[in-house]
Amino acid sequence: MPPRRSHKKSRAGCRRCKSRKIKCDEVHPRCGNCSKHGVACDFEHPEIADTLAPPETPHPANSASPCDSPSISSLPPTPSATASTPAPIYRQPDQPPLSSNSKNDRMMELKLLHHYTTITCETLAISSPVSEKIWRETVPHLAFSGADFLADALLAVSALHLRSISPQDQELIRASHSYMAATLSEYSARLGKGINESNAEALFLTSALIAFQSTASRIFTRDDSGDLKDRSDGYVLPLSWFHSFQGVKTIVASSWQWLRNSGIVIPIIESQPALNLDLSGKGATFFSDLLVGVDEELSGLGDDPALQRSTRQAYQHAVAVLDWAHKIPQTGAPLVFLATVSRRFVDLLELRRPRALAILASYFALLKFLDSVWWLKGVARREVMGIVSLFDPDDDEWWPRLQWPLRIALYDGDIIPPDIWGADPAAETARMDRAAQSGVVSHIELLSRMFSAVQNNMPGALDAVAQRYAIDKEKEMQRQLMLMDDLHVPQVD
Length: 493
Hints:
Elements: H1 15-20, H2 32-37, H3 100-118, H4 129-143, H5 148-165, H6 170-193, H7 200-216, H8 221-225, E1 229-230, E2 234-235, H9 239-254, H10 256-259, H11 265-270, H12 294-299, H13 305-327, H14 336-340, H15 343-350, H16 354-366, H17 379-388, H18 403-409, H19 418-421, H20 425-430, H21 438-455, H22 461-468, H23 473-487
Antiparallel strand pairs: 1-2
Helix pairs in contact: 3-5, 4-5, 5-6, 5-7, 6-7, 7-9, 13-15, 13-16, 13-23, 16-17, 16-18, 17-18, 21-22, 21-23
């Protein structure tokens, strides 16, 4: 009987081989066992060594596990960003032959990308063929040119869209959560390093997709959290919508020096209806009853003129946006509300001030006109009814002002007649001056210059900005005050 060969025990093997108690051939940059199973190796990625040692699962002696990670179908519906985020194939082009598990991930990615480019992209732009083409062709091209976080974002939105069609599909649930978790992680890291010319477009597009995802995720709140209601506080306001859309505004304002010449961003911005707000407070408008009694409310805030002024401006601006969007809802104008209201208005919502809640109920009623859009479907009815549940039907002051949003939210029909809606959107749209679209860019120019003034600590620059854009002094100064409030800029007399 030949003598047994001597065995030299190695302590330099990779983390995964050690955890599985198998011999590692110590080949760099990826050992033979990790290459065979198509998994990451800490020789290749030392920074993730701690994540490469999952608990060992015993297997029968006569069977072999095809890979080291569990199958997709066995994962929980809401995975964390680190443990179960899919490994996108576009990040590791040098991967060896795929294992059965990574093939599932690969097929899911291809499925999501195909769905995005054929269907989902068409739903991100409302009545704008130019924007639709950008979302379909230009955005994926940019995403796969080094903007991994943008690629993850479009896959996340595509997964959520497919999930709206098949809400019980556990693989889609996992994908929508995982890709968005990966997006937020990398997006936050990039923002932390600063916005520059090379990443400004990708960051803007990613912020927009995050806003879409935040809005659409509300559809599945009952599935993921059990209910739309918190057991202690009742109906939960979708404040994340405001935070995500306000984030888009912040990205635009802080990177406008590069975005103003972008062939991607400018067409998207110009496809939005131009803001034409009446901030004078003179004359009756459709929603002017929401401002009745505001003086009495302000008097209850104490002797703080700054707080009273910011609160009045927050209410006036929000109602002005409602009046404007109410006339042209089919253009997507109601969505502007989320990004344009001031931070003070969001604070008032968090405080559940009745006036702010009534304004919000009217806003959600406007979305009834966009009920055919998948990520807005059912929003009007669900959110209006939720807000109304916070009021007492015997409240003579506010209950009458909730009747219009209630009537709209509960309306059963595809087309809301003008006499019920309170305006004729088709006629209003026909009268819109298309040349006024440049007003959107001018508005952003103003916002960007004020943002720069804040960053550079140059309050005197605000006066120059005001003079340059003061077409109508009274209106423009009111608009500037609203923007200053939104950016927390010290006001200059």
